[in-house]
Write a structure and sequence with these properties.
heterodimer; A: mainly beta; 7-stranded mixed beta sheet; B: 114 residues; mainly beta; 6-stranded mixed beta sheet; 4-stranded antiparallel beta sheet; 0% helix
């Protein structure tokens, strides 16, 4: 099974700033995704990270707020832009390998 | 569109007993997958088990088994011989068609008592 790492594991940021989260997979995955988990809630898909092209965003999420890159099959970044306290969440990346989907350990973001 | 319903916000089980966590789903796709994840307090999402809609046998992975009843659109997780370390939030999810995006239920918080 794929092992996924994320950096940073947590951060505390000021309102109005941006944070870039990195996701690295130790083996090739066919698809990569970014999810958000707000406090006490379930996971919601932000976007599908497409290799070498623009990400595909879900309803309610836009590229200006959550720009995503995926330069190769094993690496992706998510930026949370112009942050507000409402962006305080756990952000998780996942990778699909065969029929399974594995998640990174998550990035706990607190916005003050 | 996919929808997952987990009706048990919390469940309690005695150590070494078996427990069933309920999950029902709704989908218009002919081909879909069903997943269970464990999320301990540390926050990581641990993949437990997968069931494909065309799989005839119920999936099993060690102490985890998925009771798949396609006609009822249910995919319950059975944990046998519960351990204290099983205490966590459990999420059911499904993916449909060819997009493989996961839709999650609200989760069930399982507490294993000694």
């Amino acid at each position: 099974s794929a092992v996924i790492s994320q950096k940073p594991s947590r951060d505390i940021c000021q309102r109005g700033t941006s944070l870039t989260i990195q996701c690295q997979v130790d083996s090739q995955v066919t698809m990569m995704f970014w999810y958000r988990q707000q406090p006490g809630q379930s996971l919601t898909l932000i976007a599908t990270a497409n290799q070498g092209s623009e990400a595909t965003y879900e309803s309610g999420f836009v590229i200006d707020k959550f720009p995503i890159s995926r330069p190769n099959l094993t690496f992706s970044t998510l930026t949370v832009s112009n942050m507000s306290p409402e962006d305080s969440s756990i952000y998780l990346c996942s990778g699909k390998q065969y029929n399974e989907q594995f998640f990174g350990p998550g990035t706990r973001l607190t916005v003050l | 569109a996919q929808k997952i319903t987990q009706t048990q916000p919390g469940m309690f089980v005695q150590e070494k007993e078996a427990v069933t966590l309920d999950c029902t789903y709704d989908t218009s796709d002919q081909s879909y997958g069903l997943f269970w994840y464990k999320q301990p307090s540390s926050g990581e999402m641990i993949f437990l088990i997968y069931q494909g809609s065309y799989d005839e046998q119920n999936a099993t992975e060690g102490r985890y088994s998925l009771n798949f009843q396609k006609a009822r659109k249910s995919a319950n997780l059975v944990i046998s011989a519960s351990q204290l370390g099983d205490s966590a939030m459990y999420f059911c999810a499904n993916s449909g068609g060819s997009n493989y995006k996961l839709t999650f239920g609200k989760g069930t918080l399982l507490t294993v008592n000694p």
